[in-house]
Design a protein that fits this description.
alpha+beta, Aldehyde Oxidoreductase, domain 4, 3 domains, 7-stranded mixed sheet, 5-stranded mixed sheet, 26 strands
Length: 698
């Protein structure tokens, strides 16, 4: 195999011993750079490794996201872990198995073709040879580069891949542990950071005397200040009485919280797709929007850091331990080689929440308090008010139609703030708080060929004729923005699929039939038809009765998993979900149970965003700082969900973590339009918007 055809993770970390270590006593260590953020990836990667090594999964010890002990695989994002890390693990483990079989063949003076491995033991047919991974380990050095030339197992030989496997991390979590929030180190100090209310606000004063009377101390470095105490309770009490005085900052207000505010602002413009202007003639246009969205992390961000005078160790639930280490080096002045970042699991975030900020804050405090572990815990209000949020987006679609009402020319115009802020130091709170903060830089989204940011899933998977996308990336939004699950995929798929329903209605054609008439991709067609059949689409009633059935289709990033979602709901003053059906083509399914967990979790999260969620702004920054002000979907509001994974085992595995987000939002939007006989194009679907749609329709 040519080196540049290997998965990028293996190109970047080519040595076998960066991934696999044969442990004394019958164990094997798997080292990966991708981290567990609730998606079950360490279970799936262990499943792949155990399959290719021919060992019981229980023999595997997984080290994930430790900069001192695991390969650098960048950031865990974009539903790429199985595709990239899984592809690397599969090739590495197949090659390791091949090396051990070759060594055993040499010892036994037999042909490799007559040997196999059973739970780490080398077998000659059904007879054990007495050789195994552990007594051969000294004769098989793994300090060599992978070649990628050893064949991986065909699907027909799989014993583990393709079967349901329990999550490795859940037992401890369900018993009340397993999270970084539970970690306690001897002598640990508890810190609470005094965060600015507005971007650019400066700290004028902090009442050190009242903090000391509360039993804590205060640390200040430029615009960064924190209270420290020997217990979490004292730190909380000191934070409550700290009374910091702030001045300045960018003025914001409620008018800026809607996506429409972005339109026409100063922006970086990019264009892709076909060159030239849109075809002349009548064009159908519609605009769809999403507001700013919080990550809604169930556990606020936390980090622990300890500096011994020479080495700084940080425990963080960041999605990118290696990128975080680079930021810590830039913030503290320490060499990267003097810093270790160890991933410890948090409560999930699916995007860039406050984890990196909290880790940098802990690092800064630990550097100035050597010899004592420092724990920084954000409050719930901190998480809502300070984390970078998912950006608002406005998506206008314009299409020219043929005589049958089908699109023959397509243009999408997108207004958005940047979607990926973690890579820019100037976008991280501790850097902004330095006495001399780094200058602001133009933030850019991933290129379309890398999945895109605002442009993600903006090109339809349908046959719509020449397609062009114009993206306006607004550099100065009123709040910090960064990655939220799916980036621009949810609003773009919501816009595309809503627009197609509107075109179908205009043409007088059933929405599923309309889609099939412009959809040539066989896998996408199969997924769409499966979801429609599950939902008994043929029995769909008339519009305007208060009961709706809608459908949405997408292929995440136009290259990962296919998903179609159908939603049945009722609407009067609010939307009540009644049932959801989902069909998915994920290629080779590593852990079907894990895939179902992911796609159904995405459905629930997208439903919550579509129906309820919106960051509210006020004169002192983000105003929605509690669950009362930022409602999410409740357990009692989640309907039955039926998921079917379509057999595609002869295809490569595809990323699934975000594939249902856009189709779910679209299916809800289309079902609401069917129920009301009127379209709502702006999320969330509040009572006010339902009433406005009914008035406009009436």
């Amino acid at each position: 195999m040519i080196a540049n055809t290997l998965p990028k993770s293996l190109q970047d970390n080519p040595r076998l011993d960066q991934w696999i270590t044969i442990l004394p006593g019958g164990g094997v260590m798997l080292r990966v750079g991708k981290v567990e953020i609730g998606q079950g990836i360490t279970t799936a990667l262990a499943q792949i490794a155990a399959e290719e090594l021919d060992i019981a999964p229980g023999r595997l010890v997984v080290t994930a996201g430790d900069t001192a002990a695991a390969p650098d695989e960048g950031t865990t994002t974009g539903s790429m872990s199985v595709e990239m890390s899984g592809g690397a693990v599969r090739l590495v483990c197949a090659e390791v198995r091949g090396l051990f079989l070759a060594a055993a063949a040499g010892r036994l003076e037999r042909s490799v073709s007559g040997l196999s491995v059973r739970d780490g033991a080398v077998m000659a047919g059904a007879v054990a040879t007495g050789l195994n991974y552990w007594n051969l380990a000294g004769a098989v050095p793994l300090a060599r580069e992978a070649t990628g030339a050893v064949s991986v197992k065909p699907q027909s030989a799989h014993r583990l891949v393709g079967t349901d496997m329990p999550r490795r991390d859940l037992a401890l979590k369900l018993s009340g542990g397993g999270f970084l929030h539970d970690m306690v180190l001897p002598g640990m100090a508890h810190a609470r950071v005094l965060h600015p209310p507005l971007i650019g606000a400066r700290l004028e004063a902090v009442d050190a005397a009242v903090i000391e009377r509360a039993g804590a101390s205060v640390f200040q470095h430029g615009n960064f200040a924190a209270v420290l105490a020997g217990s979490a309770a004292v730190a909380e009490a000191a934070l409550a009485v700290a009374r910091p005085v702030w001045s300045g900052g960018a003025a914001i207000g409620p008018v800026m919280e809607e996506a429409g505010w972005l339109v026409g602002r100063e922006a970086i413009h990019s264009h892709f797709g076909v060159a030239g202007e849109a075809s002349p003639g009548d064009r159908i246009r519609a605009v769809y929007t999403r507001p700013y969205i919080s990550h809604g992390t169930l556990g606020p961000s936390v980090a622990i850091a300890e500096f011994d005078g020479a080495r700084l160790v940080i425990w963080s639930h960041s999605q990118g331990p290696y990128p975080l280490r680079r930021h810590v080096a830039a913030l503290t002045g320490l060499a990267e080689t003097a810093i270790t970042v160890r991933h410890a699991q948090g409560a999930g975030c699916y995007g860039h929440n406050g984890a990196d900020d909290a880790a940098l804050e802990a690092a800064l405090l630990a550097l100035h308090h050597p010899g004592r572990p420092i724990r920084v815990l954000w409050t719930r209000a901190d998480e809502f008010a300070q984390e970078p949020v998912g950006t608002a987006m406005s998506v206008e679609i314009a299409a020219a139609l043929d005589a049958a009402g089908r699109p023959v020319d397509w243009t999408a115009t997108i207004w958005s703030a940047p979607h990926v802020g973690r890579m820019f130091a100037a976008n991280l709170l501790p850097f902004q708080a330095l006495p001399e903060p780094p200058a602001a830089v133009a933030m850019v989204d991933p290129a379309p060929e890398g999945g895109g940011g605002a442009s993600r899933n903006s090109v339809p998977i349908y046959d719509v004729g020449p397609c062009r996308v114009d993206v306006h990336l607004v550099q100065r939004p009123p709040v910090r923005t960064s990655a939220l699950r799916g980036l621009g995929a949810l609003p773009n798929v919501f816009a595309i699929e809503s627009f197609l329903d509107e075109l179908a209605e205009r043409a007088g054609v059933d929405p599923v039939e309309y889609r099939l008439s412009i959809l040539s991709d066989a896998r996408a067609r199969r997924v769409l038809v499966a979801a429609a059949e599950m939902a008994r689409w043929a029995r769909r009633g008339p519009a305007g009765t208060g009961a709706g059935l809608g459908i949405g289709l997408g292929r995440y990033k136009n290259k990962s998993a296919f998903a179609a979602v159908a939603v049945a709901l009722e609407v009067d003053t609010e939307v009540r979900l009644r049932r959801i059906w989902c069909s998915v083509d994920a290629g080779l399914a590593i852990n079907p149970d894990g895939i179902r967990n992911q796609v159904e979790g995405g459905i629930i999260q997208a439903a919550s965003m579509t129906l309820k969620e919106q960051v509210r702004l006020g004169s002192e920054g983000i105003a929605s700082r509690s669950w009362a002000e930022y409602p999410i979907l409740r357990f009692s509001e989640i309907p039955p969900i039926e998921t079917v994974l379509l057999d595609a085992g002869d295809e490569p595995p595809l990323g699934v973590g975000e594939c249902t987000m856009g189709p779910t939002a679209a299916a809800i939007g289309n079902a609401v339009a069917h129920a009301l006989g009127a379209r709502i194009r702006d999320m969330p679907f509040t009572r006010e918007r339902i009433a406005a749609a009914l008035l406009a329709g009436g």
